TrEMBL record, chains A, B, C, D:
Name of this protein: ThuA-like domain-containing protein
A Pfam family matched in the record: ThuA
InterPro entries documented for this protein: Class_I_gatase-like, ThuA-like, Trehalose_catabolism_ThuA_prok
Positions of the ThuA-like domain: 5-219
Length: 240, 240, 240, 240
């Protein structure tokens, strides 16, 4: 059965700002969906404006990996939907928050920290270094690549110490940032990826698309073992 | 200035079950408070029944380390108070959930997982092994010690991979459990300690008291560095 | 191209103890090789007695995953061969030390710790719990399984805090042990698995074979990114 | 009893290059020793040229924290002395390799990786960001500070994923580096700190001295629990 991928986007900039709509005629979700499509994958999109933001029980039950782009509307996501995403991650769904998806309710609930950063608009060069060249999310990349114009995110990034730090960014204005970090929560794999501001055509850049494509493969659920929770009988005799 | 320690207890079993009240005449909070008291420490207690559960803004602002015992009333803790505890941990307050405090709202919000376990009542032997003999929370312990009669908790314990696994328990009935695990979230140190059922006089046992006392010292806030979040000016010229 | 698997065994007990030779007529390496064989895999074996212990430059250059069983002859492994194994792990070869392979030169050099344990011969029940049910090395297992008669290993196990703790063992005699632990060193994935004493037919047990088979799949090399080391030119102008 | 600190330096540049001798009239070891001196500490120095490099059994047995600066003479350190340092770290001695001390035999043996980096001479600005503002090694620092002229080290840094990443550096020439990383091996705490080239007066800079001073406090041994290794009797009856 093909891997079932859902790309979620708040889709607000596209609806409200003509330049963004022109830059991303199919929405940022459309560009990401195109980047992660492939053999043995079915990719669909969902947006904030749909009923239940397009993330119904049924959609999530049939999603193996969820990519998530959000920015200005993080607070408009219903708590119930955010919790539903979190629950599905615990069950094994992969979760790939992109750019300020790091401020989304699901990511913050999965991390248990503020996820605070510093930032700067205006456009500057970002050079993304692979700190973990053995990681499959870096498959096929050179040692570094540049995003020619982007919003800056700077450390400290208030997250739990990552399981793996795959990418670290250098910014022209003098900051650094852990741009690709991996976690597991329950059975679900999480990869938070920094790049992706709506003001730039970042999701059409080859290396960015490669990373997102790799991240989907990495975050796919695996079978694992049984887990039994709740009240249980002893395995050994307690008679004595 | 002395370290300011607050011991929180839901205090429900003590109020509702005469055997528990007899076993812990000053409440479980009283027994824990006595265990962690010492030079250069001021220890106070707070319970569910007090206004704001005794964890007002003022109390938390003046708490360096919060110990937390809860069991049957985890759901009765107000969301607002739980969030206040989480915020203070992010700021640096140490947090030591004990026994089913692992099911408390603050701990689950800090972990981002279900914190599910298996369990069994009835009383059986637990042998607590120090897996990390170099850890300061194990100061002064032998390689293992026994709790003669306790409730069982068994793996899998649905938590993020710990920063350090200090203790692992063996149970007579055949299970194992990571009984002492360390995390940091924001500036705050967290140590979750398994033992402590209300049906047994566990908080009067020397080794248990040693661990709690050590945990308070370990979880105490440290100064750290400045952190600047939000919009910032560049450190380097972006003129070109 | 099929995954190239090499199973290394010191093969000393088999040569010196008739009961072991009878129990493992093809050697422990033969039993492990049979367990991890499969479609898209070529499996070969190598032993201490061969020139360069059967781990020549050529063999290792053509090994994707190396399983390693050793016990009484850990010190007889040539330093040069041990270093060759370590170098190949850094390059990406998976490494699966089994049982007292945890005392082998390659594993200790990769860990940087003593890897000390406590132990007991004589035969007793071990119950292996899956602490990380979402991990692919646990694929297809129940929540726990028993090895009916084994040598005991007990905590503290002097290893770096694992990246993931997949299995924790309960022993009839009262000890616990982290029986399946994951690391990465360089590009190479490492999974140390505890069971497997030569006095028992452990490598014919289904669950053990499942774990070893899963471990080979998990430890297989991935492509990753380029890494450039040594002296480099600046990416940015340093003229000013 | 005061904390016993030993500062080790290969002391080769000072002996062979007049500019370095002029810059560090008491040697780099002298400058570091001055930085970490204080109440309740006794600080001594040792160098490569002394018998057993000044790191005799007796000196190490009486060292709580060892700082280590080395560069061009890493290969000249006797294997026996390197192993002695590693053994003492396992027993609890803190170890703080500075600058290319990351290439020293003890550090590489403790890490189990190549510790490879990229580098560039010539002098450029380094800005050191605190990625973990809650860490005690960052006590008293601002969010970032600059070393005005330094040798560059760049990612990928081939180390195990750190327990904590305290500092990340930005370099004028376009690279990034994890400049302050924490580990534990056995009972010993390890903090590797990047800055410190002999061509610049870096060890006279206030922030650098603060970090080294904090690192000594952080790396100091703690008591911990007993650990029993080797063959043991069962804790439970195995009669049945």
């Amino acid at each position: 059965m093909p891997l079932q991928v859902t790309v979620w986007n708040e889709n607000v900039h596209e609806l409200e700002e003509p330049e963004v709509a022109e830059r991303y005629p199919d929405g940022i979700h459309g560009a990401i969906a195109d980047a992660v499509d492939g053999d043995d994958r079915t990719v669909r999109t969902a947006t904030l404006q749909e009923p239940e933001h397009g993330l119904t029980e049924d959609v999530l039950a049939n999603t193996d990996v969820l990519l998530w782009w959000s920015h200005c509307a993080n607070d408009e996501v219903a708590d119930e939907v955010a919790d539903r995403v979190v629950d599905r991650v615990h069950e094994g769904m992969g979760f790939v928050p992109v750019h300020s998806g790091k401020n989304s309710k699901p990511f913050k609930r999965l991390m248990g920290t503020t996820c605070n950063i510093k930032y700067r608009h205006g456009g500057e060069t970002e050079r993304i270094w692979t700190a973990d060249p053995g990681h499959p999310i870096a498959d096929g990349l050179e040692e570094s690549f540049e995003v020619p114009s982007t919003e800056m995110y700077g450390e400290p990034f208030d997250i739990p110490e990552p399981d793996r730090t795959v990418f670290i960014s250098w910014f022209e204005g003098g900051e650094v940032f852990r741009s690709g970090v991996c976690y597991r929560r329950g059975r679900g794999r999480i990869f938070a990826f920094r790049p992706g501001h709506e003001e730039y055509p970042i999701f059409f850049q080859d290396e960015i698309r490669t990373v997102l494509d790799n991240a989907v493969a990495w975050a796919a659920p695996t079978e694992g073992a049984d887990a039994v929770w709740g009240e249980v009988e002893p395995k050994e005799s307690l008679d004595d």
